[in-house]
């Protein structure tokens, strides 16, 4: 297999501290740790997050993912001079995250203000084998002088969420002059975190060790004298655990200390080897490899899958994936529709058990969704636009204060952006089509389909004998409070149709409910393409004036148009934040033919600013389905740059998690053209000219496949019989099969062998 790539930081620049802290963050789904430097800088934001540990600072605030006490930081003094790379001279610097193993390594040659030179190396990894274990190792070697080295490190509980302190320090202890332990409880007592740490020093001269606890900091101070050429090495092992809903066992402290001591006895290298093995299993199931003219393409794919592994809480079905994963405080760690639409499909076709668990998160929170529907005067389940661990709505009521007017604007998403309900239903059906999991569909799946369908039945308004959906917000959040948003209406119809279909298959719905479903399906208004093929985004969109968006598209993602126009003004023009009708055509690809796809792509893209990180990837996939491979590749490349690009602050507060999923979607569903059309698997590739080969594993209906595409040819390996629709013809694959196929840029004729 092609070597898994890495991400390197070749220069030390404070402007990039938080971007690289995000890009190089460690994660294993249970725990996420930002890649901040050991030494302190005012420009960097430290962060450590446990999946599912949310807390509300006050009754007026939504719950947010708690930023935990810091364990990364180290205060290092050399001959009394505080080590900081902004002073003295930095003679060499390199930091690298190896996606294959999740290890972050930094190598520095530094000259102090007095002219003494030192080599410093630091390594760290978050274990994929022991989910609560974080390991660090630093080494300091003086080049040309005797030096006194002092390192203070431990647990720093002064960490906050942008100034909000969520944790009370309930216990700090030092055991046997070796291990440190702190226990921290949320102020509402709904959750508890325990951090246990031990440090081992390796140096020829004796090391003096002492401990202190002051101002919410529990620290070990290690000091020694070194001769030129000697090396001081410190290994730090941290065990970070959380308990929710009063589940902490009485012997938790003793158990943690015993585990920590056992880990320290094994040592950094052995623990790293275990974690590396676990990572290898992930890559074997998930990795997409490409041969491309642009080597950054492979790095973008590896980066995306690395972070997808880091953000997915496979240990806990009551947790899901936040919009920033576990890499920062952005969006307060909340979960959106992104998870079902952009992230779940990757798992669905690489490790379906993880996709099932993400859907169970929604099922376990049905009670909260039903309560929200009731409070808003609806039936069924109205899932929160933003959610945490519970089924309660976590969307802030008010947006930030406008610094020009001093006024706040109400956040409308929780009140009207209801397409999330149908998005969840769409994901349920996609899961069943890909797995045939009858046990899930007969219980969790049908519960979700029925309760979301009930919501749409009660949400519809009768107008002249037809049913319409009024006062909604589609995926395009620059167009608010409209009637008959095409995306919402079609997805709601699909939601109800699937409740009807699976209710009949599993014989669980009564006749009265079935009649209501049938009535909805017969009368719901579905905007139809006009003669040129374009579908109206909503009832009034075509009547609105247009605006030249070239200047704003050039700064996509910055929402710069809101500096020139108010949201109310934007709402009254043909301006899209992100894909809407194009998103509909992506989600339900069987609805319309290629001519309609082309017409809508040509009409809506010039009117779309792409201010959402979700937009360009979807345009790229739809372009690929129109056999516009080079346009698709341009969109895909631009989507890859959302986090990896040259803007130093593009992801300061966390990764764009859905954009990571979209990189995989673009490669597999777009260029390779592997997509489920209802319960059939279709393959219609459109490789860009830059790609001469792409290979990936793929799960479908219990079979494990491996696709390899080259210009004009596809090789398919299956571990059992599977039926595919390959460029319009039905083929059977069992074992290895090679096919010649025509697709964009291939210039080959269609024949099989």
Rg: 27 Å
CATH fold-level topology of the largest domain: Beta-galactosidase, Chain A, domain 5
CATH class of the largest domain: Mainly Beta
Described by the principal axes of the CA atoms, the overall outline is: globular
Number of strand elements: 29
Q: Number of folding domains?
A: 3
Mean pLDDT: 94
| Oligomerization status of the protein chains | single chain
Structural class: alpha+beta
Name of the CATH homologous superfamily of the largest domain: Glycoside hydrolase, family 65, N-terminal domain
- How does the major sheet shape up? 9 strands, antiparallel
Strand content: 25-35%
Query: How large is the count of helical segments?
Result: 20
Task: Please tell me about this protein's structure.
The chain is an alpha+beta fold and 753 residues long. The protein has three domains: 6-280, Glycoside hydrolase, family 65, N-terminal domain (Beta-galactosidase, Chain A, domain 5), CATH 2.70.98.40; 336-527, Alpha/alpha barrel (Glycosyltransferase); 533-643, no CATH class. It is 32% helix and 26% strand. The protein contains 20 helices and 29 strands. A nine-stranded antiparallel β-sheet has the order 1-9-10-11-12-19-16-15-14. Strands 20, 23, 24, 25, 26, 27, 28 and 29 form an eight-stranded mixed β-sheet that branches. The longest helix has 22 residues, at 438-459. The radius of gyration is 27 Å and the shape is globular.
């Amino acid at each position: 297999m092609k070597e898994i790539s890495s991400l390197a930081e070749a220069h030390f620049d404070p402007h990039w501290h938080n971007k690289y802290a995000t890009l190089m963050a460690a994660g294993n789904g249970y725990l996420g740790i930002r890649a901040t430097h050991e030494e302190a800088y005012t420009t960097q934001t430290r962060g450590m997050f446990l999946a599912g540990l949310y807390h509300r600072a006050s009754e007026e605030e939504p719950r947010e993912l708690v930023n935990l006490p810091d364990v990364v930081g180290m205060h290092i003094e050399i001959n009394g001079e505080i080590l900081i790379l902004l002073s003295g001279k930095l003679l060499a610097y390199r930091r690298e995250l190896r996606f294959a193993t999740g290890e972050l390594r930094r190598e520095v040659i530094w000259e102090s203000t007095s002219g003494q030179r030192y080599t410093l190396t630091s390594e760290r990894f978050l274990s994929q084998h022991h989910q609560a274990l974080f390991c660090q190792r630093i080494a300091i070697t003086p080049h040309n002088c005797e030096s006194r080295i002092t390192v203070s490190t431990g647990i720093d509980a002064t960490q906050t969420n942008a100034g909000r302190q969520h944790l009370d320090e309930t216990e700090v202890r030092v055991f046997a002059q070796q291990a440190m332990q702190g226990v921290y409880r949320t102020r509402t007592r709904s959750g508890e975190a325990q951090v246990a740490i031990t440090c081992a020093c390796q140096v020829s001269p004796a090391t003096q060790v002492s401990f202190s606890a002051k101002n919410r900091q529990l620290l070990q101070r290690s000091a020694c004298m070194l001769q030129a050429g000697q090396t001081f090495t410190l290994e730090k092992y941290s065990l970070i655990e959380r308990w929710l809903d009063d589940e902490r066992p009485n012997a938790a402290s003793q158990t943690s200390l015993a585990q920590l001591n056992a880990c320290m006895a094994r040592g950094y290298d052995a623990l790293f080897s275990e974690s590396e093995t676990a990572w290898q299993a992930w890559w074997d199931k998930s990795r997409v490899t490409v041969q491309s003219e642009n080597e950054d393409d492979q790095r973008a794919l590896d980066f995306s899958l690395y972070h997808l592994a880091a953000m997915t809480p496979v240990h806990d079905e009551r947790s899901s994936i936040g919009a920033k994963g576990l890499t920062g405080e952005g969006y307060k760690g909340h979960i959106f529709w992104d998870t079902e639409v952009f992230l779940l499909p990757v798992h669905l076709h690489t490790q379906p058990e993880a996709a099932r668990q993400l859907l169970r998160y929604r099922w376990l929170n049905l009670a909260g969704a039903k309560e929200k529907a009731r409070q808003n005067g609806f039936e069924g389940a109205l899932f929160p636009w933003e959610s945490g661990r519970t089924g309660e709505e976590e969307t802030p009521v008010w947006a930030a204060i406008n610094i020009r007017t001093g006024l706040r604007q109400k956040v409308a998403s929780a009140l009207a952006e209801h397409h999330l309900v149908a998005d969840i239903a769409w994901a349920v059906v996609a899961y069943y089509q890909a797995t045939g999991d009858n046990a899930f569909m007969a219980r969790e799946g049908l519960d979700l389909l029925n309760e979301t369908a009930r919501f749409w039945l009660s949400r519809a308004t009768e107008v002249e004998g037809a049913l319409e959906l009024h006062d909604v917000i589609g995926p395009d959040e620059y167009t608010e409070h409209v009637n008959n948003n095409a995306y919402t209406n079609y997805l709601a119809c699909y939601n109800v149709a699937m409740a009807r279909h699976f209710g009949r298959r599993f014989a669980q719905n009564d006749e009265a409910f079935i009649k209501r479903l049938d009535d909805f399906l017969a009368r719901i208004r579905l905007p139809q393409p006009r003669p040129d093929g374009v579908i109206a985004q909503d009832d009034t969109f075509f009547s609105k004036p247009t605006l030249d968006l070239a200047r704003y598209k050039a700064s996509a993602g910055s929402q710069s148009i809101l500096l020139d126009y108010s949201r109310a003004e934007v709402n009254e023009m043909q301006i899209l934040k992100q894909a809407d009708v194009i998103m509909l055509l992506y989600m339900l690809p069987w609805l319309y033919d290629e001519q309609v796809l082309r017409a809508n792509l040509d009409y809506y893209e010039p009117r779309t600013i792409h201010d959402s990180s979700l937009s360009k990837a979807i345009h790229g996939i739809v372009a690929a389905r129109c056999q516009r491979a080079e346009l698709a590749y341009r969109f895909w490349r631009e989507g890859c740059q959302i986090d990896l690009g040259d803007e130093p602050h593009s992801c300061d507060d966390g990764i764009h998690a859905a954009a990571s999923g979209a990189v995989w979607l673009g490669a597999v569903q777009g260029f390779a053209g592997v997509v489920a059309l209802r319960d059939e698997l279709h393959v219609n590739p459109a490789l860009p000219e830059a790609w001469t080969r792409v290979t990936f594993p793929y799960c479908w209906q219990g079979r494990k496949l491996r696709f390899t595409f080259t210009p004009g040819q596809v090789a398919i390996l299956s571990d059992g019989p599977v039926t595919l629709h390959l460029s319009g013809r039905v083929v059977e694959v069992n074992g290895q099969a090679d096919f010649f196929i025509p697709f964009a840029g291939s210039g080959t004729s269609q024949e099989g062998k």
